[in-house]
Structures are given as structure tokens and as C-alpha cells.
Design a protein that fits this description.
Layout lengths: L1 E9 L8 H20 L3 E6 L6 E4 L3 E4 L8 E10 L2 H9 L10 E6 L8
Antiparallel strand pairs: 1-5, 1-6, 2-5, 3-4
């Protein structure tokens, strides 16, 4: 089994959902993650809030968050165990983030030590 990171990208992370919308989305997300965990293929993950963010660039230029500089914002990630990238993609297809137009889930294999390819 390899590990893959599923990165949640929101087209416009500055738009805040209503508390009701957030509650629905969080339940859907927890149910989705629960389904992966029930298969013993969930390794961990975190949400990434939009506040307290900084970007450090060449020559140590620091700006507040990625806001206004990119079209999409990373909202969080999970790490899953899968036998192939195709299996990890199947997990990603069920992600509630994809309900938002323009949102995406990036699937990347995690390189580990001498086994990185």
C-alpha cells in the first residue's frame, strides 16, 4: 500500500459559506472520510483555515495569505492508503468539495525515503 495526499482546492476560498452550509458540508465530509476509514485506508488529514496565513517568497518577501494572488485556495487535505493512484482517484471522486463549481481535488503520491520514485 502506498500513501496519497488528496488536496482540496476551492476556486474562491475567500467566499464564506453560511453556518448552515458549513454544517452540511462538514457532515458530508465526515461521512466521506468515515467511509474511507471503514476500509482502513484513512491515514490522517486537516483543514486549513483562511486566516493566519502567510506566503514567503524569494528574497524573504512575506505577504499575508495567498489571497488575491491565486484563483484557488487550498482548503485542506487528507492522506489515504491505496494500492494505486487509480484507487486514490476513486476516493477523491467522492469528496464533497467537488460539489462546488471550479473546485478540485489534487491526488499526489507521497514519496517516502528510499522508496520514492
Amino acid at each position: 500500500m502506498e500513501e496519497f495526499i488528496l488536496i482540496f482546492r476551492h476556486e474562491d476560498g475567500q467566499k464564506l459559506a453560511s453556518p448552515e452550509q458549513m454544517q452540511i458540508w462538514m457532515k458530508q465530509t465526515m461521512d466521506w472520510i468515515g467511509g474511507i476509514a471503514a476500509q482502513n485506508k484513512f491515514s490522517g488529514g486537516n483543514g486549513l483555515p483562511f486566516d493566519d496565513a502567510r506566503v514567503v517568497r524569494h528574497n524573504n518577501v512575506v505577504t499575508n495569505g495567498p489571497f488575491g494572488e491565486i484563483k484557488e485556495t487550498i482548503g485542506g487535505y487528507i492522506i489515504v492508503k491505496a494500492g494505486s493512484v487509480e484507487e486514490a482517484v476513486e476516493f477523491a471522486k467522492g469528496c464533497p468539495v467537488l460539489q462546488g463549481e471550479g473546485n478540485s481535488v489534487e491526488v499526489r503520491k507521497i514519496a517516502k525515503g528510499d522508496h520514492a520514485k
